[in-house]
Amino acid sequence: MNTQQAYNNWASQYDLNENKTRDLEAKALRKTLNNISFRNFLEIGCGTGKNTEWFSQKAERVTAVDFSFEMLAKAKSKIISDKVEFKQADITKEWTFTEQHYDIISFSLVLEHIEDLEHIFKESSALLNAGGFVYIGELHPYKQYAGTKARFETEQGLHVLECFNHNISDFINAAKKFQLVLADIDEYFDNDDKTIIPRILTILLKKI
To answer: How many domains does the chain have?
Structure first.
């Protein structure tokens, strides 16, 4: 099954399954963005809304986007707010789902499923206010090198999603082509144990 179908199938159990990557990335995101002020927020890959409610508490407007209809349905059932507008879209295509400009654009566990990073950063830069930020939270490349990928159980057995390995420099160099420069970078470890392979990589880019 393709990525959209996979997340449609995963939606019913996504919030219920133990998921160290999902939970640690949520903590990393809050730490990275906690002290940054923003009015308009674009969340790419909102999923079931694990971060959307937190964004809506800090922003005046949130546009929450996902490829999966079923993930969006879960998010909509949990988050009832005039501040939040949900959109279904394929971000590998032209971004015609909004004409607004934003102070921050976030990608949480999204870009591992995207092969062409330059397209993503080109579209992001076009919608970002000057001085605005792009937040990226991903499964750490070291974990990917070791064979870890997004996966979930189905009635037919374990399903592993299609993923693309991106080195840290791949993110930074692709972003630079579209006026997005590195503002911060961090790594997060299971149980804060820095003797093991980090689980989450966060990158904060700023538009110049």
So the answer is: 1
